[in-house]
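ok so for the tutorial part 2 we go from a plain amino acid sequence to predicted structure tokens. step 1 is just haveing the sequence, like this:
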Amino acid sequence: MYILDTDHLSFIQRKNQAGQRILQKLAAIEEAEVAVTIITYEEQLRGRLRVVAGAKTVEEQVSAYYWLHQLALDYTLITLVPFDASAAQIYERLRKAYPRLGTMDLKIAAIAISRQATLLTRNISDFQSITHSL
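step 2 — the prediction. this is what the tokens look like for a chain of 134 residues:
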């Protein structure tokens, strides 16, 4: 299983060159199961809701709700991996071992480790220090 970090999913959603490169690489992997975590969903949903809450004009509201609706549609098409008891146990160990790393990154890492999945991210500086030996 390959888990997309929030940044990778965002590139794909924006349909930019970076997103196209990610999709091409995934297409080259036979039978690649691709998913995102519930943490990515939370991050994206919070971001969209902030934009909705901050929209001042009707035009801004229309745009904000359009992108919120698009987000809902996107998540009907992708596998969503939960933060379950196994991931929570790993998260607790990661939290102690890597206190400087962000909570959301550690939760995504914990989910990937609990599923023995490969995490695809450009946030190498934070994730490279995390080991599977926990």
